[in-house]
Amino acid sequence: MEDISIFEEVSGMGHEQVVYCHEKSTGLKAIIAIHNTVLGPALGGTRMWMYENEAQATNDALRLSRGMTFKNSIAGLNLGGGKAVIIGDARKHKSEGMLRAYGRFLKNLNGKYITAEDVGMNANDMEHIAAETSYVSGMPETRGGLGDPSPFTAYTTYMGMKAAAKKQFGTDSLAGKKVSIQGAGHVGEYIIQHLVKEGCEIYVSDFYEDRVKDVVNKYGIKGVSLDEIYDLDVDIYSPCALGATVNNETLERLKCSIIAGCANNQLANEKIHGDLAMQKGILYAPDFLINSGGVINVYAEVIKTSKDWSWNKCEFVYDQTLKVFEQSAAQNINTQQVAIDIAQQRIDQVAAIKSTY
Ligand code: NAD
Question: What residue segments make up the domains of the chain, in order of their start?
Fold first, then answer.
């Protein structure tokens, strides 16, 4: 493992707890990061990915869980921020045993962290986890859950995109706009459906060629290579895969005037790349704000309400995103920082009232 000081990293980002889970017979290697529980139990999905090394996996868990703190806060949910990663190839290494072993670790956290699906996981996987613990959401509807959160995530991302178009182009119609979608996964495909309906010209890339072929055939859009996606002459770049794709190198190449996607942690460095995008006249729609639809529906399941409640709650995104853009322009602060400040204010307010018994 690369030489990193875990405690330095953990305390630097303000985490409360990081749990390493290992189960030998199934090969489970999972990291659960609990960032902040001021607003409630930490909730965030579990990601299964082929990390190059353990340091990269730890870093992803730390960054993603911090993002969940802000996402849950800005969405007005009574939830703290947490996230987990499982190291491995979801297409090859995932098994019932591994998921159940993971569920047993969750049980031992006694509800301080509640999981749901993320990259490499689906609602059926949640069912295996639920065989061992009740601290899981995003369960299939046939099991009394509210199912896949992806349509909700896609809807709020689409609303965030429209708010960005309103700010950049003076109209929120996306008809005729060129949009590049990086990642044709659960959420990416639902976003494609919204954009096809609205008459956009769509380019798509995915790590898995079969995913590109599938959406190209279904929706008559154009497939591009993993690298080509950054050089396209498009209006909107929509990162819908993994994080840190907005960085020094890609900001040199991107020709879009809006970045709006569902991926978590799109900015490699929030300050540097948030500022750089702004200087380049690219409007960045804060990821944790516009992709909050999924967690809204996962929360609806936790508090035992309905999908109607979730759709209704998702409606805050368009106006809130516009407010962030206005505040960013007025104060000359990058949009991500403005959204973080709004989220942090709510956490600070609730933390203060908890200072008395
Ligand atoms: P998914 O696993 O269904 O899809 C992700 C896709 O991205 C996969 O098809 C994968 O092959 C592809 N991919 C990975 N690296 C890539 C690359 N370099 N270039 C192009 N494609 C690449 O995951 P998802 O649920 O659709 O989530 C997508 C993103 O949205 C993630 O960052 C996730 O954290 C975020 N997100 C998802 C939800 C949700 O409701 N599912 C909610 C909030 C945020």
Answer: 6-65+79-143, 150-344
Count CB atoms within 10 A of the CB of residue 313. 21
Known binding residue 204? Answer is no
- Catalytic-role residue among 29, 71, 83, 167: 83
Tell me: is residue 147 an annotated ligand-binding position: no
pLDDT tens-digit series, residues 130-151: 999 999 999 999 999 999 999 9
**Fold of domain 150-344:** Rossmann fold (3.40.50)
Residue 231, both tokens: 């050089």
List 201's β-bridge partners, or say none: 178
In the reported structure, the alpha carbon of residue 184 is separated from the centroid of ligand 1 by a whole-number distance in angstroms of 7
Query: Tell me: the pLDDT tens digits for 42-64?
Result: 999 999 999 999 999 999 999 99
Active site residue 178: no
Pick the CATH number of 6-65+79-143 from 1.25.40.10, 3.40.50.720, 3.30.70.2860, 3.40.50.10860: 3.40.50.10860
**Most ligand 1 atoms within 8 A of CB, residue of 122, 207, 265, 288 to mutate:** 207
Q: Which of 193, 196, 202, 241 is nearest to 223 (CA)?
A: 202
Q: Is the CB of residue 87 less than 8 Å from the CB of residue 357?
A: no
Global pTM value: 0.96
Task: Answer whether 348's CB lies under 8 Å from 291's CB.
Answer: no
- 353 Cβ partners below 8 Å, 6+ apart? none
User: Is residue 186 annotated as involved in ligand binding?
Assistant: yes
